[in-house]
Structure formats: C-alpha cells, structure tokens
Write a structure and sequence with these properties.
This protein is an alpha+beta fold. The chain has one domain. It contains three helices and five strands, in the order βββαβαβα. A five-stranded antiparallel beta sheet has the order 4-2-1-3-5. The chain is globular. The termini are far apart.
C-alpha cells in the first residue's frame, strides 16, 4: 500500500498517496497491523507513535521517492538507538502478562 505520511502533535497521519513527492510503501503484513489498529483510508488517518515506530523498526514501512520529484528528498529521521531492536518482542511480552 502506498501512503503519504506526516507527523503532527498527536501522532502520525497516514493518507493514501496522491500527488505528493514523498511516498511510503507498506507491506501486506504492515497494512494488516494498521487496519487492526483501527486505521481506515479516508476515515481515520491518525496512527500512534508506537505503531509507526514498530512499522519502521520491523521493516514493514519504507520510503520510496517519487520519479516525478526533481528535488532531492531527505531520508526520514532515524530511530534512536533504544529502538534499534524489533518491537515485536514487546507485544509478545505484554500478551504473557
């Protein structure tokens, strides 16, 4: 799924990709997680910071520069070192409690 993503004060906004220069590719597994969290295209755009970071860390969300763009696109900010490990183990740990 191709998405246009930007950050706001309460989290991240995920919108279907249109004419924007930045495009993010979400794998099928990532889109299943996104929908399970309540995200719906054109209805509920906001995504929590935790889910966004999980998608990035697990490699389910990648930046794809648009071919129409003539400017250089800066890569998205990297996660801090504390988030370098996949967050999937946290979900498993929380489920065991």
């Amino acid at each position: 799924m191709l998405l246009f993503i930007y950050e706001e004060e309460h989290g991240w906004i995920y919108e279907p990709h249109g004419e924007e220069a930045l495009c993010y590719d979400l794998t099928f597994a990532g889109s299943e997680l996104l929908r399970a969290a309540g995200w719906r295209p054109y209805e509920m755009h906001r995504v929590s910071r935790h889910l966004h970071d999980s998608l990035l860390v697990d490699g389910l969300l990648t930046l794809v520069p648009s071919k129409r763009s003539t400017t250089t696109i800066a890569s998205p900010p990297l996660l801090p070192e504390c988030c370098a490990a996949p967050l999937s183990f946290l979900c498993k740990w929380a489920g065991d409690r």
